[in-house]
Design the sequence.
């Protein structure tokens, strides 16, 4: 497969929660919090619909993620406009790397064979009129592809 795959999930972006540890019968175990499992499940469902029977990438890929947050309702119209035009950035939780981790893990085996195939990541957090996350996964351009793109530009 050489065509990019774009997956959109409406709703507030969520980060991957830390694994929790427990002690039972003298043994330590770990589990992923329910909220994270649920969110990753929603991502996988949307990704499977988008893939529609296509074979996952088995080559180096580029991963592009954009997390969009709505501006707080308490903000003035002027401040909201500044947020939507990018003058104000969402320096708030969840951390961008944790959002990416949730998506990377959820797309394993669905969009790409393994997240070790990701060779380039572009991550972005911004404000917008609707909360959502948009992820595009595409094959990494080869050196020859890069030369063709430079000549064309």
Sequence:
């Amino acid at each position: 497969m050489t065509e990019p795959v774009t997956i959109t999930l409406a709703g507030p972006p969520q980060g991957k929660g830390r694994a929790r540890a427990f002690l039972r019968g003298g043994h330590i175990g770990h589990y992923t919090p329910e909220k994270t499992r649920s969110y990753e499940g929603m991502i996988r469902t949307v990704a499977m619909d988008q893939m529609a029977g296509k074979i996952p990438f088995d080559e180096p890929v580029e991963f592009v993620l954009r997390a969009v947050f709505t501006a707080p309702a308490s903000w003035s119209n002027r401040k909201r406009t500044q947020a939507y035009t990018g003058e104000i950035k969402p320096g708030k939780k969840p951390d961008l790397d944790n959002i990416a981790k949730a998506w990377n893990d959820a797309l394993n085996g669905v969009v790409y064979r393994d997240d070790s195939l990701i060779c380039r990541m572009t991550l972005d957090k911004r404000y917008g009129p609707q909360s959502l996350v948009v992820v595009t996964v595409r094959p990494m351009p080869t050196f020859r592809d890069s030369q063709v793109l430079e000549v064309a530009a």
The helical segments are 34-51, 77-84, 96-107, 143-152. The chain has a mean pLDDT of 89. The radius of gyration is 18 Å.
